[in-house]
């Protein structure tokens, strides 16, 4: 849907997306939305294709696209606003004014299940599966006091080259076959999911010992088989899920359909996932 830029009233700048600034805005004087601006020419082509893809997508764990402004500058996407911010900011809390939010194992299993359901839906799209390619906690947004996960920021790049240039910070979650330049399949998202699950449980940044070094150092480490350290005293089935997801061989990684079945089963042992997070 084409949206008239006059119907948008910017409230505040809320950060930087893959391709430009993201604003919180009021649309048609009532809806609170997120507005993502697209800054450069090269990205506009990718953006148009993306809008077509996104407009076919409808799932509770994927940020909804309401429409786009294409007839005026700056070109932008108008999307669902997630008031809880990113999972990344929640896991790795930096606000000195308040202590880090408290979450439980139930929240982790539920977040993982919601993320897996959203990606399973993308992978089952017809006529052609949508591969996210840049699954990571900064692209997982939270709503409903931290209990609901929404996936955002996929593609706005159809070609990987533009994407890699814009998202140098993704190396820690990227499957080896992607940066090795090999043909990759939807299983590259499963790899990223394994890293994310490890990160939600450990509450550490993957490869944090290489913080501040260039992305190719992490890529090299991953290429030669290095993975984040296993977590002590974690239930075996969860450890096996993580390690099978980040297997070097994409064929050995489980499909998201299998992951969803497994996590659904696990949910029954972890009640309370719909309880709000505690922000001390």
TrEMBL record:
SUPFAM superfamilies per the UniProt record, alphabetical: Protein kinase-like (PK-like)
EC annotation from Swiss-Prot or TrEMBL: 2.7.11.25
Pfam families: PK_Tyr_Ser-Thr
Keyword Coiled coil: no
Residues annotated for ATP binding in this entry: 36
UniProt signal peptide: none
Domain Protein kinase: 8-270
Source taxon at top rank: Eukaryota
Protein name, as recorded: Mitogen-activated protein kinase kinase kinase 7
Organism of origin: Nematostella vectensis
């Amino acid at each position: 849907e084409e949206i008239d830029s006059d119907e948008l009233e910017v409230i505040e700048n809320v950060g930087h997306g893959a391709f430009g600034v993201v604003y919180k805005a009021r649309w048609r004087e009532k809806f609170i939305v997120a507005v993502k601006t697209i800054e450069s020419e090269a990205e506009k082509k990718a953006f148009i294709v993306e809008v077509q893809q996104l407009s076919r997508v409808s799932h509770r764990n994927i940020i909804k696209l309401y429409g786009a402004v294409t007839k005026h500058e700056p070109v932008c996407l108008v999307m669902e606003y997630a008031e809880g911010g990113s999972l990344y900011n929640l896991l790795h809390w930096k606000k000195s004014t308040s202590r880090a939010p408290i979450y439980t194992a139930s929240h982790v299993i539920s977040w993982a299940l919601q993320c897996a359901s959203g990606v399973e839906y993308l992978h089952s799209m017809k006529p052609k599966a949508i591969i996210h390619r840049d699954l990571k906690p900064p692209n997982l947004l939270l709503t409903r006091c931290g209990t609901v996960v929404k996936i955002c920021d996929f593609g706005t790049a159809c070609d990987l080259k533009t994407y890699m240039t814009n998202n140098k910070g993704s190396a820690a979650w990227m499957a080896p076959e992607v940066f090795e330049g090999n043909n990759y399949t939807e299983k590259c998202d499963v790899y990223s999911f394994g890293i994310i699950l490890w990160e939600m449980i450990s509450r550490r940044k993957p490869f944090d010992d290489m913080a501040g070094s260039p992305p190719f150092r992490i890529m090299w480490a991953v290429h030669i088989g290095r993975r984040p350290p296993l977590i002590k005293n974690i239930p075996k089935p969860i450890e096996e899920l993580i390690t099978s997801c980040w297997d070097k061989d994409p064929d050995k990684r489980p499909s998201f359909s299998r992951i969803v079945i497994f996590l659904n089963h696990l949910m029954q042992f972890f009640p309370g996932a719909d309880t709000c997070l505690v922000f001390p």
